[in-house]
Amino acid sequence: MIRSKFIFFITFLTFSCPLLFSQENEIMMDSIPFGAIIQSELGGKRSKFYGNTRFTLNQAYFSNWISGGESSITGLFGMDYNYNYSDRNGLIWDTNFLLSLGATYVKGNDYTKKTDDRIEINSLIGKQINRLSSYSVYVNLKSQLRPGYNYPLTSGEEFNRERISEFFSPAIIQGGFGLYIKKEPIYWINMSPLAARVIMVNSSYTKNLSEDQKYFGVDPNKVSKFFFGASITGNIKFNLMTNITLENKFNTYINYLEKTKNIDIDWNMDFRFKVNDKISSNLIIHFIYDDDLIKKLQIRELFGLGINIDL
Question: Which domain covers residue 289, as residue numbers?
Answer without folding.
Answer: 2-310
